[in-house]
Amino acid sequence: MQKMMMWCGTCMVAGLVAGAAHAGSVGTPLAPSILARSEIAGAFAAAHRPGHTARAIAPADAFRYWAVTRRAPGSVEVHEKWVDVIYVRAGAASLQTGTAVKGDWRTGDGEWRGGRILHPHVSELQAGDMVVIPAGLAHRFVPLGGKPFEYVTIKVPAPHPAPTNAQRSGR
Question: What's the rounded Cα separation, in Å, for the pair 161 and 138?
Fold first, then answer.
């Protein structure tokens, strides 16, 4: 019952974020983005190849769609302009999150990688779970149990950009 309530709450949050992202398109006909099983399976097959961890599932529209397979701990990531909506397809992982990061570097417009999360909050995720990571929240996945951790990420434009890394860290 608790998982069902968490699922419903997560779906509501994702819907609100998606709605906010499309709020400026009033009067414009909207069309659904349908990602076929074959597209998703193909992206995961490509992500399973040696040297690869992530593949775009479909051409980008207002959102970005990624199939990700992690066999080793990922680096810390912070997205100032994107909300990550994540559905766990297979495996289990520890999700570390926090607001303060030390030692990271900028990799693009509003994108930061590396370093370590200071005083991380740790949650365990497993197949069937869904999580929404707000813009500006540092996060990192560490696979558990010796099996690959597979998930789909839908990147949704943040309704309001998060504080910059310099603002968060007091630089």
Answer: 14
What are the pLDDT tens digits along the chain (171 aa)? Answer: 444 434 444 444 444 444 444 433 333 457 777 888 888 888 888 888 877 788 888 777 788 999 999 999 999 999 999 999 999 999 999 999 999 999 999 999 999 999 999 999 999 999 999 999 999 999 999 999 999 999 999 999 999 878 766 556 655
Distance (Å, rounded) from C-alpha 128 to C-alpha 126?
6
What gap in Å lies between CA 65 and CA 76, rounded to an integer?
Answer: 19
In the chain, count of helices (H) and strands (E)? 3, 13
Within its chain, how far is the Cα of 153 from the centroid? 5
Its pTM surpasses 0.70: yes
Whether 150 contacts 69, CB under 8 Å: yes
